[in-house]
Design a protein that fits this description.
The structure is a single chain. This protein is an alpha+beta fold. The protein is built from six helices and seven strands, in the order E-H-H-H-H-E-E-E-H-E-H-E-E. Strands 1-2-3-4-5-7-6 form a seven-stranded mixed sheet. Helix 1 packs across helix 3. The termini are close together.
C-alpha cells in the first residue's frame, strides 16, 4: 500500500450513528455488493451497537465509522471473519455516495490495513467483490490487492447470480 497522508480516521460506532447505520443497512442498492440482503430493524442495530464488546477477539469482527478531516462520516469499514490463528480477516467497505471518487476509499483501505498489520498483526486481508462491481475491483487493485479466485454464482441479487472475485492483500 502507498504511504500517503490519510484523509480519514476510523472510530468505534456510537449510539448517535444509529440512524445512518439504519439507512445504510437497509439500502437495497447496497445489498447487491455484499453478502447481506435482508433489512435490519432499528432495534437489532441498536442492540448490536449496545452489545458489541469492541473486542475483535471476542466478537471475531469489528465495524468502524470512517470520518474525514472535517469530522463528517464518509463511510463504514468492517473487519469480519477474523481468524487470529491464521492471521487473516475479511474487509468490507462502504463509502457514502456523495463522498465517492474523492480518495476516501483508498484512504480507508490504507487505514484499515495499518490497523490490521500494526494492531492485529494480520498476515492478510481479503474481500469478496461482485464481478460486476468494476469500481470496487479497481479500488482494491489500486490498493495492492490481487485477484486470487473467482467463485461462480456466489452472490444472488434476487433475480440473477453473480460471480464473486476474491481479492487478497498479503502483507510482506
Amino acid at each position: 500500500m502507498t504511504s500517503t497522508p490519510s484523509k480519514v480516521s476510523l472510530r468505534a460506532i456510537e449510539p448517535e450513528d444509529l440512524d445512518l447505520l439504519y439507512r445504510i443497512e437497509n439500502d437495497r442498492n447496497l445489498w447487491n455488493v455484499g453478502t447481506t440482503n435482508v433489512p435490519y430493524s432499528r432495534y437489532t442495530l441498536h442492540d448490536y451497537i449496545a452489545n458489541a464488546s469492541d473486542d475483535i477477539y471476542a466478537d471475531r469482527q469489528v465495524r468502524m465509522m470512517v470520518e474525514n478531516a472535517s469530522g463528517e462520516i464518509v463511510g463504514i469499514v468492517d473487519i469480519v471473519n477474523f481468524d487470529p490463528g491464521h492471521r487473516r480477516a475479511e474487509v468490507g467497505l462502504i463509502i457514502l455516495n456523495k463522498y465517492r471518487r474523492q480518495g476516501y476509499g483508498c484512504s480507508t483501505l490504507e487505514a484499515i490495513a495499518d490497523y490490521a498489520l500494526r494492531i492485529l498483526h494480520l498476515h492478510q486481508l481479503f474481500a469478496f467483490v461482485d464481478s460486476n462491481n468494476v469500481a470496487s475491483l479497481q479500488l482494491f487493485k489500486k490498493m495492492g490487492y490481487h485477484e486470487s479466485a473467482r467463485i461462480i454464482d456466489w452472490l444472488y441479487d434476487g433475480c440473477n447470480y453473480h460471480d464473486a472475485i476474491v481479492m487478497q492483500f498479503v502483507f510482506s
